[in-house]
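Training component of the fellowship. As part of building independent skills, the fellow (R.M.) carried out the full modelling exercise for a liganded target. The chosen ligand was aspartic acid. The inputs are recorded below so that the supervisory panel can assess the work.
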Amino acid sequence: MTSKWFAAAIIGGAVFGWLLAVNFADVAWLNALTQIIQSTFLAALKMIVAPLIFFSLLSGVMQLREAGSLGRLGGVTLLYYLSTSAIAILVGLGIVFFIHPWTDYPPLQGIPTADITFIDTEAGFAATISNLLLALFANPFAALAELNILGILTAALLFGLAAAIVLPKDSNFPSVVSDITLIVYRIAGWVIATLPLGLFAIAFQLTSKIDVTTFISLAHFALVVVGATLFHGLVVLPLIVWLVGGMNPIHFLTHAFQAMVTALITSSSAATLPISIQTAQEKLAVSRPKAAFVLPLGATINMDGTALFEGIAVIFLAYMFGVPLDTFAIIVVFLVTMLAAAGAPGIPSGSMAGLQTVLLAVGIPLEAIALVLLIERPLDTIRTAINVEGDLVGAVVVEKWT
Ligand code: ASP
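Fellow's submitted model of the complex:
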């Protein structure tokens, strides 16, 4: 099934669940059935998520080893991608810190209001840091078993790093890891194939908790995401292309326009890649080998719009589902979003799997994803355009500094 049809099936499943619930919410057997489907689906998702994160990160680190062997070009590219993703999340979290209109409305029915405390005065700074360190350096087996996302990330990074240093060049470990990753991906694919059914059940169960204020809150959430994304795309990235890339931002935006519109229409950085490469070479004066290295890598791991969106989405869903977030949780959101955005594939709704990882990391129930899916398609268009803009700015910056 192409990703477009799959996305349509997901939305179809969710909408069908909603429509059915609106009309038959108190039919007992339908309630029981959707409850069973929901539990099975969420259990299957949780079953696969730990190995998926561990092996995809490990094989990512192995690939970075190759990028690292490209020396300065690889180094500058990675540095650019890491720092702009971090800036994007900070823009998202910074804006949502000041502007969070949905808190004027109650969270979902039957869910207590949670305090969102950015500075956790009770726990104190030292306690926050020591909690963070305890989670980061947990026993790797315990981390996998307990779904401690931070612990899994550290284990995979350290394992990959040590393997890169200690193994000989002709070791077949990287290919074993990539084979295991393929197997895990296949199992995840089976679980994901049932997504329309799972979302149907979740939507059915969620409907009873939703009223008109939820839709108002969702609209506010969408407006904040659009505003923050536009700020990043029209202010932050042009400033970077000007100050770091040495290019007039108006010149950049007018020439990047076609690629950005393509991204907007396709909702896919991967599908836009041929246009991005052509744009970089022919309109932004980036040399062919650099464009051929920076842009495919960017379409896979550099997603500013996605990172920004995930940060705001987590804060919004934490409120709607009554999960309190303290300073520790905000740091976790920052770190895990960096990796989740880097791991998101450049396809329509590609970030939804990574968003689940961030939700799990701070204890937000997985079914929260159904709420975001209601508004996901229009938001995907604009964040993909900004993802592609970020890649093109990266190409200009790398051209200048290598
Ligand atoms: N659609 C996005 C892209 O292709 C990924 C996502 O955020 O869902 O860049």
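The panel noted the following from the submitted structure. The mean pLDDT is 85. The chain has one domain: 3-401.
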